[in-house]
Amino acid sequence: MWLALGGVVALVVAGILVFALTFDPNRYKGEIERMAMERTGRTLRLQGELKLAFFRGLGAAVAGLTLSERGSGREFVSLESAHARSS
Prior knowledge:
Elements: H1 2-22, H2 29-40, E1 44-46, E2 51-53, E3 59-68, E4 75-85
Antiparallel strand pairs: 1-3, 2-3, 3-4
């Protein structure tokens, strides 16, 4: 029984490791920016590279983020870096 449980745990850990090493969040930058425009009417620019974060929950980090005012090209907020995570 313990051997089977250990095998399942090892398989789950291996799956998580493969996901973390092969998933490229930067492939989705354009989609994230498009969805932000569709849902908020604001222009979101993710200037830096997106990185997965695993500390204190699954999340993402980006260096350089700007968000425009609604329906305008004027900048509303600009962040040097941002980190979002699930709770």
